[in-house]
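Changelog-adjacent note: as of this version, every example in the card shows the full chain rather than a window. The one below runs 253 residues end to end.
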Amino acid sequence: MNTKKVFKFGNWVPVKMIVAPMLLGIICLMLGVVTNGLFFIPAMLFMAVAVYFATAWHLFSPGGLNIQSRVQDLVVSHISWKGSGKALDIGCGNGPLTIKLALRFPEAEITGVDFWGKNWDYSMLTCLENARLAGVDGRVTFKKASASALPFEDNHFDLVVSNLVFHEVQDVTDKRQSIREALRVLKPGGVFVLQDLFLLKPYYGTSEELVNVIYQWGMKKVNFTRTCDESFIPNLVKLPFMLGTLAIVHGVK
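Full-length structure tokens:
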């Protein structure tokens, strides 16, 4: 009997972002009935927000356009590495990118780190279960840590990757510091592929400024690629706070 493997990778749109505006919309609608329509406009606005995030949730999921997995694949596609040594996935969530690395590079030792905060439906236990289902649990380890303070010595990894993490780090004001921390644990000659909302100027400045700063940290090669322009990303989720400012910084230390 065939048994389908069910991975629990979660969704970048938390369910509460759908449920909360929907409930507020219902409340406003009820208030509108008893106030001769006074709350009908905010009811419509809340409902529109709920519909938007529900649609985004579907598009990100495997049952929709599977955008989450395809965005993670962009990170993997930019990796130029022989695959022997140690790799780090920063902000691994429930481990989808970590597992992709393990499958792509069977000779590598892969470590995934995440803070696993209460705002997301992610956990180390789920990572371990997903790794077991993928058959890579013998080569993958997971640790709890903040991207701003990685529990590793300098020059420890041969490859460092990350996907949509640094803008979420709450314990640093300058989001670029988490990038610098990621590069600290990378060996000289090691490869980095980091994807985030790098086109958000309030966080990272212009792309030229960001690249120059990373060069100043001692990198040998730094490239900047606008991944928000990928054809599989629909306009609906190209708002700045979604995927409209998505880009990859990649290169060699």
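Structural remarks: The chain is about 35% helix and 20% strand.
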